[in-house]
User: Fold Glucosamine-6-phosphate deaminase from Lactococcus ileimucosae.
Amino acid sequence: MKVITVKNQLEGAKVGFDLLKEAMDNGAKTLGLATGSTPVEFYNQIVKSDLDFSDMTSVNLDEYVGLDGADEQSYHYFMNKHLFNEKPFKENFLPNGKASDLEAEAKAYDQIIAEHPIDFQILGIGQNGHIGFNEPGTSFGETTHVVDLQESTIKANARFFKNEEDVPRKAISMGIASIMTAKAIVLMAYGESKAEAIKGMVEGEITEAMPASILQKHADVVVIADEAAVALLS
Ligand code: F6R
Assistant:
């Protein structure tokens, strides 16, 4: 796992963009994408660039259960706003949080991932070490599945909602096993609140209690983080 320390989110976004450009120059066709605060500036760099994505496919990590794409808090809405409306791709996939049969939706999403192997995966990390919405305790063998969000995640994400009660309690997420199939992974983390998780991920024991620690076993992971997020690394 390679750790690149940057001054701030803007510098991190530029480093991430250069890695993406290099991957696309080398033939990457499918991007795995994340939502949340962390990748916003990275998406802005893509939007500002003249890189052509019309032949690219994206597969997102997750979506809240119960929200449809028109809902401003949904990850569909987030992705359209920050990236897809400005930079058209060939196709964009996200799990359908409104599916009447969520188990069937999870299976169908695994099929999409199998048909579109991820060349380049962008990740953020939760304060509790989650990647995607794979909370501590999730089996490393899990593929796309329905998740009960943990209290700390609900609290952390409440900032995007009017009230904490409005945060959905469930999500549908790519599993750890799905994420680990990506050819290359770039994980970004900014701020003190991520420092414990970054330490556990990079230097801790590989354990399902710290989902991101599995990335130590992946052959091509780059971590882009600011000083505050790497502060606890030895
Ligand atoms: C989002 C996702 C999550 C976030 C994580 C960090 O699609 O899968 O794992 O990356 O919760 O969120 P932020 O970036 O808002 O701190």
